[in-house]
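Example 3.2
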Amino acid sequence: MSELREHRLKRLSMRSMRRGIKEMDIILSRYADRRLGEFDDDMLDRYDALLSENDQDLYQWVSGQKPPPEGLQDIISDISKVAFQR
């Protein structure tokens, strides 16, 4: 049995808020609030996988300190745009 979309969005939103380091809590919860509802199932799969990455690595990728791995560049770029918008 697959997870209902509503439950999946809530789960991903909670995982975005409770990361481990405050900076990533803020960045990913803002991103989740603005983008998750627009995502199709494939994008939700990609975001779910991204949430398994280490917070220190994610922060360095999102902040531009290190380049993200191939295959994550587009979603990291989008996260950066949303996170650092005014």
